[in-house]
Amino acid sequence: MNKMLIALPLVALVAACGGSGSGGGKAGAQLKIVGSSTVYPFTTAVAEEFQRANPGSSVIVESTGTGAGIKLFCGGVGNDFPDMVDASRAMKASEYADCAKAGAKTIIEVPIGIDGLTLIQAKGQLALNLTTTDIYKALAANPFGKPNTAQTWKDVNPALPATKIRVLGPPPTSGTRDSLADLILTKGCESDPAMKVLKKSDEKKQKDICTKVREDGAFVEAGENDNLLVQKVSADPGALGVLGFSFLEENADKVAAVSLGGVAPTEATISDLSYPGSRKLYVYVKGEHLTAKPSIKQFINAYSKAWGKDGLLAKRGLVPFHDADAASATAQAAALKPLDPSTLK
Q1: How far apart are CA 222 and CA 226, in angstroms?
Q2: Is 209 buried (19+), middle (13-18) or exposed (0-12) by CB count in 10 A?
Q3: CA proximity to 283, closest of 27, 93, 70
Q4: Measured distance CA(36)–CA(329) in Å, rounded
Q5: How sure is the predictor about 323, in pLDDT bands with cuts at 50, 70 and 90?
Q6: pLDDT tens digit string along 105-142?
Q7: Which domains does the chain have, with CATH numbers?
Q8: pLDDT for residue 287
Q9: Could you identify which of 5, 156, 195, 214 might form a hypothetical disulfide with 141, taking C-beta atoms 3.0 to 4.6 angstroms apart as the criterion?
Q10: Distance between CA atoms of residues 326 and 331, nearest Å
């Protein structure tokens, strides 16, 4: 954990002076939030506004990655454990089980908006248009069950340039890495009918073939700091990076998007889910902490006011929900209905 904090200059805390660190019944009790580097900028923005509107309140936000954040969140109940966790994917059934074992049995899921899992390249490079199958063939350790020998994108697809495959992406603890596996690699893998058949007969083997990433340098784990990843890609012509759409928008002067299946990531294509990398983002709340810290509910209410079409978070790159999804998210932010673990995978 200490190494992670050192590695992330933005990991910092967003805390007002004079905030109470106790878990008493005061509405101003300190709130601690960990988790996704993708959701971090949005939660930080809400925390800053919340503290301005509620003098004496204190909110600490740490960027740890989704997986690591949920592990901390599920460590137990009480002042030593986070009140909330940001996530760039849904909580897993196994993670919920860990929470329950540690006494955190009332988990509340609040969807906050939509993001696009984006592939980026340095500004000014030849525009790439990849398919999920192209990316799978380039990055899988054993595409379709055979060792990966591809060295260039042309080896993957004759229509692509003979540029060396080099993709910088998040580590396994990141929700963005999970989204890469679910939204891109698995879809590319299952373009082969045999892989769909294998899933029915040996799901574990199929998952390994579809999601295990090669370790020969073609894929480089670049850590949880998305801003640093942008810097690395912008300075490395030919390299691609994997991160959330909001970071693409913020750095449009340095990097450009790679289209997936002919669809570029934009607010419109992410919102209507036509972009293959579209994904929901979440904040999870520990129900056991709600009574001791009434400010949790106030904070989620502030979040819901910030995620609308013309709200604070849309200006930061979050793609708002529309219609039924928007109404459902707002209702959940008010009701804070506990998660049904049977719905988790």
Answers
A1: 9
A2: buried
A3: 70
A4: 19
A5: confident
A6: 999 999 999 999 999 999 999 889 999 999 999 999 99
A7: 2-114+281-343 (3.40.190.10), 116-278 (3.40.190.10)
A8: 98
A9: 214
A10: 9
Give the dihedral of Cα atoms 85, 279, 154, 220; nearest 10 deg: 0
Per-residue pLDDT tens digits for 43-66: 999 999 999 999 999 999 999 999
Looking at the predicted structure, is the pLDDT value of residue 13 above 60?
Answer: no
What is the signed CA dihedral for 272, 274, 277, 279, rounded to 10 degrees?
A: 30
> CA 345, CA 343: separation in Å to the nearest integer?
7
Q: Which two tokens stand for residue 110?
A: 């609040």
Each residue of 231-246: pLDDT tens digit?
999 999 999 999 989 8
**Residue whose tokens read 């998952």:** 207
Beta bridge partners of 286: 107
CA distance 247 to 10: 14
**Residue 344: both structure tokens together:** 């988790």
For residue range 28-48, list pLDDT tens digits in order: 479 999 999 999 999 999 999
